[in-house]
Amino acid sequence: MSRHPVPHGAPDVDAVAASATYRELIERLKQRIRESQARAARAVNTELVMLYWSIGREIVEKQQTSGWGDDIVGRIAQDLAADIGSPRGFSRRNLFYMRRFAALWPEREKVPSVMAQIAWTSHRVLMDRFSEDPQLYTWYAAKTAGNHWSVRQLQGQINLRLHERQGAALTNFEIALDAADAERALQATKDPYVFDFLELSEEAKERQLEQALIDDIQSFLIELGSGFAFYGRQRALLVGEREFFLDLLFYHHTLRRFIVIELKIGAFCPAGVRQQDELLFERPRRATPDW
After folding, report:
1. Contact 184, 255 (CB under 8 A)
2. Coil/strand/helix, residue 20
3. Higher-scoring residue by pLDDT: 154, 265
């Protein structure tokens, strides 16, 4: 018998489960579970990455002090697999990655904290590309952690040379914004943006480009970068008695500003930029958005 008997006249379970109060409880519990699982996964990943660093450091030190050649790495892999019962994670190839990882940062206290925040598979990608450039290695590691990139997304951003495009756009931020805001705004831009996920013909019109970007909004947001939230398309803006429509509107959570994107196909036209600047900046008191 239950120690907590149901009170007389208690509502039916199905009726309770259909109520808003019950659904709110379930959502709170689910959120709490997800957060706990995420913390546990981060803790496991941190432990794994630093374990791999320590194994790599041991191998480096023994090879340096004892004069062992690279063949010993394969033997270490065999013995670890035999004793642990599984070769997973301790293959000869992975041990060489551990050694390279430890060689990049010989002292544990100097291993950048961001290294423990990304998956080991991402580290392998970064070592293949930037083992001779720790600064770029760390830069992409930070971007991977901050944007929660998958390995495929990381590889894509490296192939598109994000480090050369981010902050490279021509802007007037230095004269239009305070120094601190100008730097943050510049880092939120790229030059050029690469939308290789689109499948459009050379005869495509601007509305077709707009629709294609919206159809794959996830890839579009990834290319824009962190902090962007889609706010709408063709949003109305009243300036005096005239009504204008903004192609795409985003909000940037770091900049705490709205970002307007006007889509144009064809050669750059300075007149179009001047018209947009006049609309958005020179007469703001007369501009009335519908958002």
Report:
1. yes
2. helix
3. 154
Is residue 22 within 8 A of residue 71, CB to CB? The reply is no
Q: How many CA atoms lie within 13 A of 25 on its CB side?
A: 7
3-state secondary structure of 280: helix
Is a pLDDT exceeding 80 seen at residue 238? no
Across 177-189, b (16+ Cβ under 10 Å) vs e yields beeeebebbbebb
- How many angstroms separate the CA atoms of 50 and 123, rounded? 12
- Identify the bridge partners of residue 287 per DSSP, sorted by sequence position: 239
Mean pLDDT of the chain: 82
* Res 32: pLDDT: 92
H/E segment holding residue 23: helix 20-66
Distances (CA, A) of 271 to 52, 234, 265, 278: 57, 21, 14, 11
- Reported as a single tens digit per residue, the pLDDT across 88-130 is 788 999 999 999 999 999 999 889 999 999 999 999 999 999 9
Give ranges for CATH 1.10.10 in the chain.
29-69+87-159
CB contact at 8 A, 270 and 256:
no
**Quick one: pLDDT at residue 247?**
87
Which structure tokens are listed for 286? 């007369």
Q: What is the pLDDT of residue 210?
A: 87
User: Global pTM?
Assistant: 0.61
Which is it for strands 228-239 and 287-289: parallel, antiparallel or unpaired?
Answer: antiparallel
Chain centroid to Cα 229, Å, comes to: 13
User: How many other CB atoms sit within 10 Å of the CB of residue 213?
Assistant: 23
Q: Which residues contact 56 (CB under 8 A, 6 or more apart)?
A: 95, 97, 98, 99, 100, 101, 102, 103
For 29-69+87-159, CATH number out of 1.10.287, 1.20.5, 3.40.630, 1.10.10 equals: 1.10.10
